[in-house]
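Design request, tokens follow.
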């Protein structure tokens, strides 16, 4: 005769509120209550996972534009102009002079010499490419090709 299936005993669960144990004797049916707590916890975690997956989603829509820059700092508001930030972008300087770009802030300028390409991938980042600041040195001009994916 096969062994009998043993049903595990539920562990003793104590509910603590304000540092004191709550009397659970008023709970008529303990199992549905615990089931509700587990489902609520699962639902909350499912929402967090969904938000994370949505933030990593790429639409796959290509964005191509040319930034003509001079010595006046300018900004391309990607999030406003394309309704969504870029996940990945490459910047190619077609010259004739050196250009400078800064992503999402004015604090870290990246120099981009004539003929150079700079690529940035923020697929897994908390914040994607929302603004692109660009400029040249005094009296210089450059043309930057931007190829990105929303």
């Amino acid at each position: 005769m096969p062994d009998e299936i043993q049903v595990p005993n539920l562990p003793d669960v104590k509910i603590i509120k304000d540092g004191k144990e709550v009397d659970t004797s008023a709970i008529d049916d303990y199992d549905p209550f615990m089931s509700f707590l587990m489902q609520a916890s699962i639902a909350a975690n499912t929402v967090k996972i969904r938000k994370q997956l949505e933030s990593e989603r790429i639409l796959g829509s290509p964005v191509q534009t040319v930034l003509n820059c001079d010595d006046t700092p300018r900004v391309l508001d990607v999030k406003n102009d394309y309704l969504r930030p870029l996940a990945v972008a490459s910047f190619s300087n077609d010259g004739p002079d050196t250009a400078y770009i800064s992503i999402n802030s004015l604090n870290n300028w990246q120099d981009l010499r004539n003929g150079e390409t700079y690529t940035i991938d923020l697929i897994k980042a908390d914040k994607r490419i929302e603004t692109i600041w660009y400029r040249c040195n005094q009296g210089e001009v450059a043309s930057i090709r931007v190829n990105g994916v929303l």
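Comment from the thread starter after seeing the answer: thanks! The chain is about 20% helix and 35% strand.
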